[in-house]
Amino acid sequence: MPLNNKGAVLNREKLVAAREDKVLMRENAADLREVAVHLREGRVTSRELEICATEAVQRVSDSRMIMLQQANAHLVVATLESHRLAEQVEVTKVKLEHLAHHDVLTGLPNRILLQDRLIQAIESACRQGSQVAMMYIDLDQFKHINDSLGHSVGDKLLQSFAQRLKGCVRHMDTISRQGGDEFVVLLPCIENPESAAMCAQKMIAAFALPHYIDQHELHISASIGISIYPDDGQDVESQIKNADTAMYFAKGNGRNNYKFFKQEMNDRAVQRQSIEASLRRALERQEFVLHYQPKINLTSGAIVGAEALIRWQHSEYGLLSPAQFVSIAEDCGLILPIGRWVLHEACLQARLWQQAGLPSIIVAVNISALEFRAREFLDNIRQSLEETGLEPRCLELELTESLLMQDVGSTVSIMHALANLGVRLAIDDFGTGYSSLSYLRQFPITTLKIDQSFVSQMCNNPDDAAIVSAVISMGKSLKLCVIAEGVESSEQASFLLAQRCDEGQGYYFGRPMVAESFATLLQTGGTLIHNWGGKHFHSV
């Protein structure tokens, strides 16, 4: 009960006691008057009168004593309550102070506390002649987990990630959550930038382990940008800004890695902002175009498919490849409408080739993790097939290993739904991720694509040759179609054919080309003939 309410109750009780005291005094007075009457009438002695008066006074004294005892008891209670409330106020004050400087979800220091500690670290480094590292960390493709599995799972993943970060730093270091899926780590008093690099490597290794949340096995990596005081800025603002800039370059360089800030990054960051602004208008202006790269049956030399690859005809920078804008589209949320356009356009073009009487081929479309996890993904596939009239068996969706392993349970469900539609499913860049063979058996995939990093060196590096041979053998045993990416020489094509690889794709067979040029290729069946080991092969 609040202290002011206690006081009001105490006052009321005092008033009641006073009224009772007055009543008692009136009763005693009445008794005395009655004794006086009896005395006049000779019915009572003076001794009896004395005894009666003494008893009346004693009753009044006892009543006042009881009232004083009650008042004292209430005062003690009020004093104890006052101390308890004071303690509660102090505890609440401490909690509010903590909330003002810490993130509610993870309990980590927030921007305000980080800034204070960074100021102290810079002042100390300035006095001691040491260095300070600022690490800006952004989770890769966290948004699709949050959107597909819900904010509850997303919040728990952030908490798990924060705990993992704590195991990678020193006691004197500060980990701060900036908001969303962005974290900053402050490393004061480091001897050289290599110390920060070692810490970043330790983090990336820790991030590779799965997170088990609500019966989901989640894999998520992070991109890390690093700035160093005093080389990369003299104040708090420039340190954080430059680390953030370096992080974007790490993300644009394939994610799951770290980059140190370099001065030339600022110019490219400005260009990035310009590209992002233009990207928001590119769909409306119809600036995107699809190029198609042929896929060749290595035994017959026939063109059996094409991979649809997006290009952006930028008004200022010219023709841009996906590497120059797709990661930006993912970061700003534009990858979903762009992905829907690519899917619909590829299906429409494949159907137009069929209607023109050209050989029926399979058109392949790359699917990003954000697209795959979007709630409307399956509906978009169905809608594109229905609107264009393309048979599902003529569409192949290429998915990366890392995408498939982010949430295996959900992935299996979606892939079986796609397989039930009749759509073909391929694992792109196979060998570069961390998929488990036990999981691969659960996926209804039809194709394995060997990553070009292995193909490019397989004729010179025995280890890469062994990996390519093993993947082909495994694919055959699983009754999958195996296709090699990045084939650029007849020597590579001959090696793949000898290993009984099904298909090849790369500059040796044909570069990505516009739809009209690909139609011409389909009509002619190729313009150059390569011969090795008695095998005839047609390509461009």
Question: What is the structure about, briefly put?
Answer:
The chain has 540 residues and is α/β, with parallel strands linked by helices. It has helices at 3-40, 46-101, 111-128, 142-149, 151-166, 193-207, 236-252, 264-282, 326-331, 335-355, 369-373, 377-388, 401-405, 408-421, 437-440, 452-455, 462-477, 490-498, 515-524; strands at 131-139, 174-179, 182-190, 211-213, 216-218, 222-229, 258-260, 288-297, 303-314, 318-320, 362-366, 395-400, 424-430, 447-450, 481-484, 503-504, 528-532, 535-539.
Provide an overview of this structure.
The protein is α/β, with parallel strands linked by helices and 540 residues long. The protein has three domains: 3-101; 111-262, Alpha-Beta Plaits, CATH 3.30.70; 272-533, EAL domain (TIM Barrel, Alpha-Beta Barrel), CATH 3.20.20. Helices cover 54% and strands 19% of the residues. The chain contains 19 helices and 18 strands. Strands 8-9-11-12-13-14-15-16 form an eight-stranded mixed beta barrel, surrounded by four helices. The protein has a five-stranded mixed β-sheet with strand order 2-3-1-6-7, sandwiched between helices. Strands 4-5 form a two-stranded antiparallel ribbon. β4 (211-213) and β5 (216-218) form a beta hairpin. α4 crosses α5 and α10 runs parallel beside α12. Mean pLDDT is 84; it is low at 526-540.
